[in-house]
Amino acid sequence: MGNRLTQIATRTGDDGTTGLGDGTRVSKHSARPHAMGDVDELNSHIGLLLCEPLPEEVCALLVEVQHQLFNLGGELSIPGHEMLKPEALARLDEALAHHNAQLPRLAEFILPAGTRAAAQAHVCRTVARRAERAVVALGQAEPLRDAPRRYLNRLSDLLFVLARVLNRMDGGDDVYWKSERLARG
Predict the structure, then answer these.
(1) Alpha-carbon gap, residue 21 to 3, rounded angstroms
(2) pLDDT at 116
(3) Do strands 25-27 and 17-19 pair parallel, antiparallel, or not at all (unpaired)?
(4) Distance CA 163, CA 100 (A)
(5) Which residues contact 89 (CB under 8 A, 6 or more apart)?
(6) Which of 9, 28, 58, 77 has the fewest Cβ atoms nearer than 10 Å?
(7) Cβ 86 vs Cβ 4: under 8 Å
(8) What 3-state DSSP class applies to 175?
């Protein structure tokens, strides 16, 4: 990985460019910084979710996800570099299977609501979807491994499931969408 920052106010980005991990400079408006920024924003929202009272296993999982998102961001910052390992995706699949097994089947669409922790998990899910779209756009513009896209796709699924788990933490439930059309049908 490139040089670590030793100071933050470098002023090198004043011209509208940013430095990548391999030392090249690109426009801050290009696809790579967009994807990196969306992944960084997702990591920040997960940090906010971690401020909520959560089951210990969910906390540990989310901290692990934060580390993997940092790896994913590092991979995005160095074209051609691999930091996100297959084990990271396998861990998401395991967590999805574990938490999904505890939930009833969905009877209807649910709203991104309920407890504060569940609502924040839904915010994380939507930011993960945006980050995934940014990574897809980057992959269409430049060569990119499948791992970052697959990780973000699976992570958004996991965040949806975790929102459902968190709504049930103290005996609550999903907040179901009440469709007028479905109510009439």
Answers:
(1) 7
(2) 96
(3) antiparallel
(4) 11
(5) 147, 150, 151, 154
(6) 9
(7) no
(8) coil
Contact 8, 104 (CB under 8 A): no
Element (H, E) at 74: helix 56-77
pLDDT band at 8 (very low <50, low <70, confident <90, very high): low
Query: Average of pLDDT values for 156-182?
Result: 89
What phi and psi, each to the nearest 5 degrees, are found at residue 86? -55, -30
Dig out the tokens for 92 from the structure. 């998401």
d(CA 52, CA 122): 14
**180: Cβ–Cβ under 8 A, 6 or more apart, which residues?**
none
Residue 141, CA atoms < 13 Å, CB-side half-sphere: 13
